[in-house]
Design brief:
Distance between the termini: 55 Å
Radius of gyration: 18 Å
Number of domains: 2
Number of strands: 0
CATH class of the largest domain: Mainly Alpha
CATH architecture of the largest domain: Orthogonal Bundle
CATH topology of the largest domain: 434 Repressor (Amino-terminal Domain)
Strand content: under 5%
Structural class: mainly alpha
Largest sheet: none
Number of helices: 7
Amino acid sequence: MTDLNDETARRSLGERLREAREYLGLKQDEVAAYLKLPRTALTGIESGQRKVEAIELTRLARLYRQSVGYLTGEEEQARDLPPDVAHLARQAADLSQDDRQELARFADYLRTRAKSGQA
């Protein structure tokens, strides 16, 4: 029974990794080069046929800007945000404080414009 659960978990992890890679528009070759693995190894990971080492999972989480817990299915995406909003939040986290404040002002502008029917 454990083998079946492990297989299911590997497939689920692989699917989340593939979705994260595709969402960011990365090719398998690019990610494999980043991990210093053959592309076939990444294909095996994404299909659930190859186990992922902890260091590989950590590097993938960093590259995909997701938590390891999200990739493994132990935690859901932050507050169940839509994927595009979660992606924006991850991108904003890397901005300086001044740039985040500017981004917040722009978001306020867009909300105001939408409410006034100018969109």
